[in-house]
Amino acid sequence: MKSFSKWLCFFRALLTAIGIIWLFIESYEGITNQELDLSYKDFLLSSTLLGLLLFFADGLFLEGFFKNEIVISSNSFDTKISVLFGDFFDQKGWKAIGVNDCFDDIVDDIIVSSKSLHGQVIQKFWGGNSGNWRNQVDTALSQTPFTTITRNPGRTRRYEIGTTATAIVNENKFLFVALGRTDETTHRTSATAEDLIKAVRGLLVKARNSCSNETIYIPLLGSGLARIGIKNAILVDLILTAVFEETKQGKVSNSIKIVLPKDKKPEIDLGSIYQDWK
Predict the structure, then answer these.
(1) How far is CA 229 from each of CA 135, 160, 234, rounded to the nearest angstrom?
(2) Per-residue model confidence as pLDDT tens digits over 214-224
(3) What CATH number corresponds to the domain at position 122?
(4) 115: which residues sit within 8 A by CB, 6+ positions away?
(5) Structure-derived torsion over alpha carbons of residues 229, 233, 239, 244, reported in degrees to the nearest 10
(6) Are 55 and 118 members of one domain?
(7) CA 208, CA 94: separation in Å to the nearest integer?
């Protein structure tokens, strides 16, 4: 669908270019009473070149389908909201990480997958020391209500979706938000669209009180092991919906950025997102 949309934009640009050149020829010949010496081949070539120029200008500056980042603004608040393709872990600021509602810490590809952002953070930033990570999370959640479940292995405290714990290691700042609901028997996690919105709003509530207006980076939550089962482009819309709703309740930070994996470019059209949300 994304490629088809680009082809439509190209043909629109080509037709516009043909009209511009045709208008120029008619105007020139009408004013000078002379026929312009332009062959049919040259006419098509000129139209194609101008059409390509208009197409790329449209993709870079208007529709935005060639952009790597878009900024969405609103008169309702003064927070800069961006959507971009990039390396999530390279960003400097508070990074949101979706976890399961038990805040598990065993990275064994059964309880916590090593491929998830949750597992990668424990391994990359805590050096695989899950105990240290668990202690920081427990301290952050010490005043937070929970229910007790029966499972083994795995942690037995279950928190509400949207519950968020802050943790800092070597100047790297994280917001760990409960997104996935844990099955007590299989340990698999799952979430719904409503869970995603609730999780994003929950982490923003925590960020409002903890992040001192620093930039907050949100990944493509729900695209991996949370198993929401929704197309990635729709996930972006759900995250934006939650960001807009919570930001209207009160300023969260000066800047919120949704960082998308670069390999999702074929699936997610920033131009379409910009047109829908501008």
Answers:
(1) 32, 21, 10
(2) 999 999 998 87
(3) 3.40.220.10
(4) 109, 224, 225
(5) -150
(6) no
(7) 12
Positions in the chain whose pLDDT score sits under 50: 1
Distances (CA, A) of 233 to 83, 112, 256: 12, 25, 18
Domain count, the chain: 2
Residue type, 197: I
The SS3 of residue 261 is coil
The packing angle between helices 117-125 and 130-140, to 10°, is 110
> Rounded to an integer, what distance in angstroms lies between the CA atom of residue 18 and that of residue 50?
8
Find all residues with CB under 8 Å of 76, minimum gap 6, and list them.
Answer: 247, 248
Q: What does the pLDDT look like over 41-74, one tens digit per residue?
A: 877 888 888 878 877 776 666 655 567 788 888 7
